Amino acid sequence: MAEQGEEDREYREYRRLEDCEEDSPPGEEEEEQLLLHVTEGPTDSWHHIKDLDISLTPPPHIYQFHQRNGFACVVLSDVLELVQFLFVVTFSTFLLCCVDYDVLFATRPLNHSHVPEHTKVTLPDAVLPAPQCARRLRGSGWLLFLLVLAGAVWLCRLVTALRRLVGYWEIRSFYIRALGIPAEELCNHSWQSVQARLLALQRRQPLCVPRRELTELDIHHRILRFRNYTVAMVNKSLLPVRFRLPLLGPVVFLTRGLQFNLELLLFRGPAALFQNTWSLRPQVKRAGARQALARGL
């Protein structure tokens, strides 16, 4: 009984954070709609936001926009990522199709040069002519398939970058018009300063319509929600990150790849426990369905 009481006390320490938008009891929806009014000032899309998490969490929203130092930096980062992808694919194709490694590693003498055999081999000696490189590329079906696949991935990333560009511009306008922080001065403001202006804006012209005033803790919970869930599950020994190996004893194993897969499984995937960034699926809340859901998971 003492152990059970201690466990109950531990679980009570995890206090549920109230949602920005909660279900209203029957008969109160009309009353709440009558109480809502349009505030004076800018009437942009960031007023009366349905899901505050979307505006606070990445990408490319308020917190990450500040952490990545503004519009120019995030756009340049996306452009360089696209260029990096092209460079890696192009250079890998060049190394596979356009380099004669027998000449490069001197396993056979040069056959397209009059240079004596004892002369040092240079990189131009090992590079194949363009027509021969193109023939080797066309003759490799699997390499052509990989190049087509890489091209499709690059186009998807380009479309995603263009879509995020619109979001970047909206957040830039939000910082300038709503928070009063010019783009060139964003790097001089700490997140605490931005957060203070955000809370002041919430009191003056509500971003969302919560049942209680928005606080710093609410913002931190929303930004770190999934990370806090992960830490809590590790503390409760619900995630398999501790193993006992022969001779080495207990070890902790949590790579970035394993962490990504756990987040995809629990938080962001099609079968995740959350139906959006802040609300659990209704079937997860029913105690009678938890065993079946656990087996399915």
Walk me through this protein's architecture.
This protein has a domain at 59-109 and 122-214. Strands 1-2 form a two-stranded antiparallel ribbon. The chain is extended. The two termini are 31 Å apart. Strand 1 (242-245) and strand 2 form a beta hairpin. It is mainly alpha-helical and 297 residues long. It has helices at residues 2-12, 29-35, 52-56, 62-67, 71-97, 101-104, 123-126, 130-138, 141-178, 191-204, 216-223, 225-235, 256-268, 290-296; strands at residues 242-245, 249-252. It contains 14 helices and two strands.
Count of strand segments:
2
Mean pLDDT equals: 76
Gyration radius (Cα, Å) is 28 Å
Please state the overall shape, judged from the principal axes of the Cα atoms.
extended
**Spatial gap, N to C terminus:** 31 Å
Describe the protein's topology.
Layout: H1 2-12, H2 29-35, H3 52-56, H4 62-67, H5 71-97, H6 101-104, H7 123-126, H8 130-138, H9 141-178, H10 191-204, H11 216-223, H12 225-235, E1 242-245, E2 249-252, H13 256-268, H14 290-296
Antiparallel strand pairs: 1-2
Helix pairs in contact: 5-9
